[in-house]
Amino acid sequence: MKALVLGCAGPTLTDEERALFRSADPWGFILFRRNVVSPDQVRALTAALRESVGRPEAPVFVDQEGGRVQRLGAPHWPSYPPGAVYGLMESEFARLGARLIAADLRAVGITANCAPVLDVPVAGANDVIGDRAYATEPQRVAALGRAAMAGYLAGGVLPVVKHIPGHGRGNADSHRALPVVEASEAELAAHDFVPFRALADAPLAMTAHVVYAAVDPDRPATVSPIVIERIVRGHIGFGGLLLTDDLSMNALSGTIGERAVAALAAGCDIALHCNGVLPEMRELAAAAPDLAGEAAVRAARALGLLEHPPEAFDPVDERLRFEAAVAAALANRPASTNPLVSAVAPAQGDPTEGRARSDA
After folding, report:
1. Which helix (H) or strand (E) holds 261?
2. Is 138 helix (H, G, I), strand (E, B) or coil?
3. CA distances from 324 to 6, 329, 330 (A)
4. Nearest to residue 251, comparing CAs of 161, 151, 163?
5. What does the pLDDT profile of the chain (360 residues) look like in tens digits?
6. Catalytic: 175?
C-alpha cells in the first residue's frame, strides 16, 4: 500500500485508472466537484474506488466545508454556510453542522472530510481563507473547530484539520503562488498555531504550502523537516496522520514525484494529489514509498475511529433546527463586529477545486 491519496478524472473510473489504482494501491482517494453528479453515482464511484484496491475500509476524502468550498451541492445536497457564520452562533451548531455534513457523506460512501479549517485570518492577508475561517480570534476558532471535529466523528466521518500550522496570514493563494509569512515565531505561536495546538489530538491534519520565514525561510511547511519536526510535531504536539495539501498546487516546485519525495522525507505521512491527471499519478506511484512505520500506525489508528457505527441521529428534525439557527444568526449579525461576515455574499469561485499546475 502506497503512502498516497489520489483523485480521478471524472464521475466514473476509466480502465486506465482502475489498472493504476490496482497496481499502485494508494491508501485512499479524494473526490472533487468533477466527480460528483448524483447520490447514486457517487455511491457507485466510492464503491468502485475501494474495489480497485480491494480494501473496503479504504478512506474516501472530500472537501465539504460549506460556503465556497462544497463539492456536493444542489440539487441533490443542501448548502451549508461558510465557517465564519458559525462564528456568530453557539458552538453546538458547529457540531450540528458537521454532524449533518457527516450524514450526507456517509450516505454516499465518503468517510473523511477535509475540515474543520483552523486557520486564523489577519488583516491584509490573501482572501483564499477569508470566510472559510470561523473567526479572527484563535481561541474562538479552537472552540468551534473542536465542536465540528466532534460532530464529524459522531457521524462516522474522519475530520482533517487544516492547514497546519496555519494559512490565515498567507499573502498569496497557495493554489496559484507560494505564500511567505514574515511574522516572528513568537507571534505565530501566540496566534496562528493556537487552534492547532488546542486540537493536537485530531486524527488527521493537512499541511499548509506556506513559508514561515522565521522558522524555515527556504521551504514551505509541507516540505520542511524543520517546520514539521519543530512546530507541527513539537510545539503544536500533533500526533495524528499528517497529509500534504494537494501536491499539484503552484506553491510547490519540482516535478510531482520530487514534491512527494520531499514532503514524505520532511515528515509528512501521506502525499495527497487531487487533479486526477493520469501521467502525474503514474509518476507518484513510482516515486512514493509504501505506507510503513509510524505513518502506518497513525493511519490504522485513524481508520480505527470508523469501526463503530455513527451515533443515533434524526437528520430531518436536526436539519430544521440547524437551518433556523443559521437564518437567525444571519438576520441578527452585527453590522461590523465580525469582518468575516459583515457582508456574507453569494459564494464566489471555489479557490480549492483541484487545479492542475499551470505548467502541466
Report:
1. helix 256-266
2. helix
3. 37, 9, 10
4. 163
5. 999 999 999 999 999 999 999 999 999 999 999 999 999 999 999 999 999 999 999 999 999 999 999 999 999 999 999 999 999 999 999 999 999 999 999 999 999 999 999 999 999 988 899 999 999 999 999 999 999 999 999 999 999 999 999 999 988 788 888 999 999 999 999 999 999 999 999 999 999 999 999 999 999 999 999 999 999 999 999 999 999 999 999 999 999 999 999 999 999 999 999 999 999 999 999 999 999 999 999 999 999 999 999 999 999 999 999 999 999 999 988 765 566 765 444 445 566 765 443 322
6. yes
What is the reported pTM? 0.94
The one catalytic residue among 175, 191, 209, 273: 175
Of the candidates 257, 212, 248, the residue with the CA atom closest to the CA atom of residue 230 = 212
The residue among 100, 102, 18 whose CA lies nearest residue 62 is 102
- The C-alpha atoms of residue 224 and residue 226 are separated, in whole angstroms, by 5
The amino acid occupying position 159 is P
CA distances for 298 relative to 194, 257, 259, 284, 303, angstroms:
23, 23, 22, 21, 9
Position 238, amino acid: F
Per annotation, catalytic residue among 245, 246, 269, 350: 245
> 163 catalytic, yes or no?
no
